[in-house]
Amino acid sequence: MITMKQILLATVLLFSAGLLSAETVKSPNGAMVLNVELKNGVPVYRLDYKNQAVVKESKLGLELKDGKNLTDGFELTKTETASFDESWNPVWGEVKTIRNNYNELAVTLTQPSTSRHILIRFRVFNDGIGFRYEFPQQENLNYFTIKEEKTQFAMTGDHKAFWLPGDYDTQEYSTMTSNLSEIRGLMDEAITPNSSQTPFSPTGVQTSLMMKSKEGLYINIHEAALIDYSCMHLNLDDKNFIFESWLTPDAIGDKGYMQTPCQSPWRTVIVSDDARDILASKMILNLNEPTKYEDTSWIKPVKYIGVWWEMITGKSTWAYTDLPSVKLGVTDYSKTKPNGKHAANNTKVKEYIDFAALHGFDAVLVEGWNEGWEDWFGKTKDYVFDFVTPYPDFDVKELNRYAASKGVKLMMHHETSGSVRNYERHMDKAYQFMVDNGYNSVKSGYVGDMIPRGEYHYGQWLVNHYLYAVTKAAEYKIMVNAHEAVRPTGLCRTYPNLIGNESARGTEYEAFGGNNADHTTILPFTRLMGGPMDYTPGIFVTQVNKINPDNNSFVHSTLARQLALYVTMYSPLQMAADLPEHYNQYLDAFQFIKDVAIDWDESKYLEAEPGDYITVARKAKGSSSWFVGNTSDENGHASTLKLDFLDAGKKYIATIYSDAKDAHYETNPQAYTIRKGVVTSKSVLQLKAAPGGGYAISIVEATDNASVKGLKKL
User: Fold this and answer.
1) For the packed helices 396-405 and 346-359, what is the interaxial angle rounded to 10 degrees?
2) How far is CA 518 from CA 578, 659, 692, 697, in A?
3) FRET label pair with 521: which of 144, 235, 372, 659, CA 20 to 30 Å apart?
4) Which H helix or E strand runs over 647?
């Protein structure tokens, strides 16, 4: 049941900058204190948490391309304060119910020299603040172009930061861990090759940015509800430790075309003295609007496998032939010579369908099924795919008939190769093709430089395209998992058919040289703050040369940690990414992937330190079963795990999948143990994760005494 109350506390009208004193708003629990004021006509804010400074005095405003800037010369003409408290139920999520509780301050600023006015709205939650610029329709501010947003976040010192290079086109970098003062010296090392990349500054970083102060405060800066606006990066003044917003430009350098009434996304600062609170925060979701869809019954979490990893590792190909150049509608594939390595063929896909059906998976992703893969990348082709024409060895109707007979869906794949106009040209036809052939979810991709040429992945034009694709898909009741798109900002609340994104360095990079061992101990604090990630875990055979002898990469993880990622890397879309024949070698460990839920009623963050370890317990939706996961960095981690989240007075059967004593992500990754026993809410488990390791636990309520017979108490 959703309840809502909104209480207007005060409205104050002011007509002179001289009347202004600082406005103060506290969080509902009083721990977060926001101060807002005008200083010499410039709006500034500061934020304290538990009497400690988090954001020092920081300026607000926007620089415009034409005309006087919206940065100074303001008078405060109105303030409004309000309180809000509601509870709402997400369509899918980490918890069944989310509380949205904040105190609000809205300040109207008037610029007498131009007769323009803007409103800055601040919301103060128990876990942080969000604020945005609002531009009412008015005679002297109708259409305008943003040259740069000038929002500042002034830090109190040389914090430890977990950062990615600022880039208009990719987030697929390894996270760097350093003090703020060290970013400039590490930037060249941090910028590693990618299929499309545009770094912009020696001290530019991306959001979500995670930091830890020397005083022990955990601080996260991001944005929420990114709609019809350019994605925000942060540029650091590394002498004064002041971040300033840096928007993604378009092809001619402009950073936003606005028509009033309009607004910016929310700028967010989440803060706590406990890292677990950062992971548990739902503030970014709360700053997004409720779902736009009246009917959400067609939106379901998905556990899937896919014809994918063997292409990523180089064993097989997406392309049907080895032709250097093809043209859709011109190249006659029935007369071409197959290369013999094309993975998306009828025989193989049926094998995957059989495996999915046997083990209870919802869907099978198939990449490389459609014509055009021979020269899809790096040629700046506009008409690269049509999204409806299969290769000769892929029978769409037969495969979907076969999948349906087994109770399995096929998952569509739409790679655009960055040719966005081409995708929009074909979108209705492609989505209708999906409906006609039994598909209800699509993995889309935006690999490579953008077409139109000069546009960037994170600019306003592309931000609008990604949302267009999601809302258009909803017209056909299709769920979307977009790769290489802009990083999530909580829009999955408003558009819950956006069930996944990549927008970070995922498991595929384990076949491209590997991810750092601490990678999955950082991503929940950074990339996942705005929404779930299609990380594609579950690789059991970690030496890639066992699939492709020419590829010497390895997965920087133990097998046990691969299980844990299904719990620690929250997503309603979870892939078992390895080959079926590899799972058949480790069916006892594979049982956890089969059992683990993908939708939750409760989530408890038990342990957390960014870059070191995360331990999470989650209660399955509509069930009494719990699942626990731990992911640890290259140093491993010892846990004293209290199970006091279990119902008192009940017995549970716990199955623990853990690293063996001699396990190590580099030298002995497949060394794991499985033990089963009885636990209660009073149980305390001593568990150890190996270097690059972790553990996973399924906890199922014992239905009767017979079910626990012969099991020891753990």
Assistant:
1) 20
2) 21, 16, 7, 21
3) 235
4) none
Distance, in Å, from the CA atom of 455 to the CA atom of 621, rounded to the nearest integer, reads: 42
- How many Å apart are CA 39 and CA 59, to the nearest integer? 9
CB neighbours of 332 closer than 8 A, spacing ≥ 6?
none
pTM listed for this prediction:
0.97
Give the phi and the psi of residue 235 in degrees, each rounded to 5: -110, 130
Residue 427: strand, helix, or coil: helix
CB atoms within 10 A of CB 473: 24
Question: 248 CB contacts (<8 Å, ≥6 apart)?
Answer: 168, 230, 231, 232, 233, 255, 456, 458, 459, 460
For 434-452, give one letter per residue: b (16+ CB within 10 A) or e: beeebbbbbbbbbbbbbbe
Pairwise CA distance, residues 544 & 591, whole Å? 23
Q: Which residue has the tokens 């699939």?
A: 547
| Whether 194 contacts 449, CB under 8 Å | no
Which pLDDT value is given to residue 22?
Answer: 85
Token pair 């010369």 is at which residue?
A: 73
- Element (H or E) spanning 434, and its range? helix 420-436
pLDDT in tens, 428-437: 999 999 999 9
Res 706: pLDDT = 87
In contact, 373 and 384? CB cutoff 8 Å: no
Neighbours of 577 (CB within 10 A): 24
Q: Among residues 508, 581, 602, 607, which one is catalytic?
A: 508
State which amino acid sits at residue 29: N
Q: Quick check: 602 and 616 in contact, CB under 8 A? A: no
Say which residue the tokens 């005083």 belong to: 215
Q: Which of 245, 287, 230, 266 has the alpha carbon at shortest distance from 60?
A: 245
Which pLDDT score, from 0 to 100, does residue 21 have? Answer: 62
The answer to whether the CB of 109 falls within 8 A of the CB of 69 is no
Per the listing, tokens 């957390």 go with 608
Could you give the CA distance from residue 133 to residue 122 in angstroms, rounded to a whole number? 9
Q: How far apart are CA 563 and CA 578, in angstroms?
A: 12
DSSP string, 559-609: HHHHHHHHHHS--SEEE--S-HHHHGGGHHHHHHHHH--SSEEEEEEEEEE
Q: Are 324 and 375 a contacting pair, CB within 8 Å?
A: yes
Please state, in angstroms and rounded to a whole number, the distance separating the CA atoms of residues 198 and 196: 7
Q: Residue 545 to residues 163, 342, 423, 561, 642: CA-CA distances in angstroms?
A: 31, 19, 35, 20, 40
Contact call for residues 25 and 34 (beta carbons, < 8 A): yes
C-alpha span between 446 and 435 (Å, rounded): 22
- For residue 220, CA distances in Å to 31, 98, 607 come to 17, 20, 18
CA dist., res. 34 & res. 36, Å (int): 7
How many Cα atoms are found within 13 Å in the side-chain-facing hemisphere of 186? 20
Q: Looking up tokens 């180089």, which residue turns up?
A: 314
Neighbouring-strand partners of residue 573? 302
For the chain, which ranges sit under pLDDT 50?
Answer: 1-5, 7-10, 12-19
In angstroms, rounded to a whole number, what is the distance separating the alpha carbons of residues 329 and 352?
30
CB neighbour list of residue 453: distance below 8 Å, 6 or more residues apart:
251, 380
CB 494 within 8 A of CB 288: yes
Q: What stretch of H or E contains 638?
A: strand 637-642
| Cα(486)–Cα(46) distance, integer angstroms | 29
Tell the residue number behind the tokens 């001290």, with chain if given. 203
Pairing, β 116-125 against β 637-642: unpaired
Q: What is the mean pLDDT of the chain?
A: 96
Q: 3-class SS at 232?
A: strand
Is 23 marked active-site? no
pLDDT of residue 15: 42
CA 701/CA 170 separation, integer angstroms? 44
pLDDT score of 680? 98
